[in-house]
Amino acid sequence: MLVRLDKFLADSGEGTRSAVKQMIKQGRVHINGIPAERPDVKVDTDIDEICVDSRSLIYREYEYFMLNKPAGVISASNDKTQKTVLDLIDIPKRRDLFPVGRLDKDTEGLLIITNDGPLCNRLLAPGKHVPKTYFAKVRGNVTEKDVEVFRNGVDIGDEELTKEAELILLGREEDETGVYSLISLTITEGRYHQVKRMFLAVGKEVAYLKRISMGPLKLDDALSSGAWRRLTEDEISLLKQMGKQDSK
Ligand code: URA
Predict the structure, then answer these.
(1) Which stretches in the chain have pLDDT values below 70?
(2) CA of 189 relative to ligand 1 center, distance in Å
(3) What's residue 95's pLDDT?
(4) 214/157 Cα distance (integer angstroms)
């Protein structure tokens, strides 16, 4: 693929377009061992070797990260006042990354971050129905009746009932603040505050929420809260396959 040298450098996390222009001027950038002279020169990402201060760079058109989102950060690319999920990716990084969908500020767990807009649009398209599984602690006793209601669709105040969802009762916990049900819930839509609103519709409150899978991707147990890693090639192709499947 042919790209401008300044785009190559900026996309590789070397800095803003103006910062990388400066690096080129300072003679810090080499193309196949020859000092680069102009930011607009086209380089071939498959053939040319681009080095900054003798460090060889690998160009990735698209990047994919898995983040174990902690509570307290927002699912946005940037924000003037609040910490965002992008602030947690603590490497020099390209500036066009964004989260695939949103988790509430107090929700934890699996969030995919990428700059692959077309794939993101396909995964989030209405009608795509990518399954998302959440673990939750719900105040009070979640019952078999709730399991049935969730299976048949819940009125959460939207025009349509929610689609069939799989609610599994995992256990109970009790502390000085009361009794909690531990559950797993798989939904195939992404409506605003959907899990919390589904429980509210059956008179219950979600006290803790964590996403543990999205389509074929499971949250990596090795990622502590706030930690991230790049997706493996296998995970990327699983996501792409999911994006290709026909929407219903
Ligand atoms: N449903 C919610 O209520 N909140 C989330 O963050 C995700 C799903």
Answers:
(1) 246-248
(2) 11
(3) 83
(4) 25
Residue 186, amino acid: T
In the three-class reduction of DSSP (H, G, I as helix; E, B as strand; rest coil), residue 184 is classed as strand
pLDDT at res. 158: 96
pLDDT tens for each residue of 193-219: 999 999 999 999 999 999 999 999 999
Residue type, 154: V
What local confidence, expressed as pLDDT, does residue 246 receive? 65
Is 46 in the active site?
A: no
Domains present along the chain, CATH in parentheses: 2-57 (3.10.290.10), 64-125+220-244 (3.30.70.580), 131-214 (3.30.70.1560)
> Looking at 53, 104, 146, 158, which residue is catalytic?
104
Q: Distance between CA atoms of 18 and 9, rounded to whole angstroms?
A: 11
29 touches ligand 1 (CB under 6 Å) = no
Among protein residues, the one with the nearest Cα to ligand 1's atom 4 is 193
Q: Is 132 in the pocket of ligand 1 (CB under 6 A)?
A: no
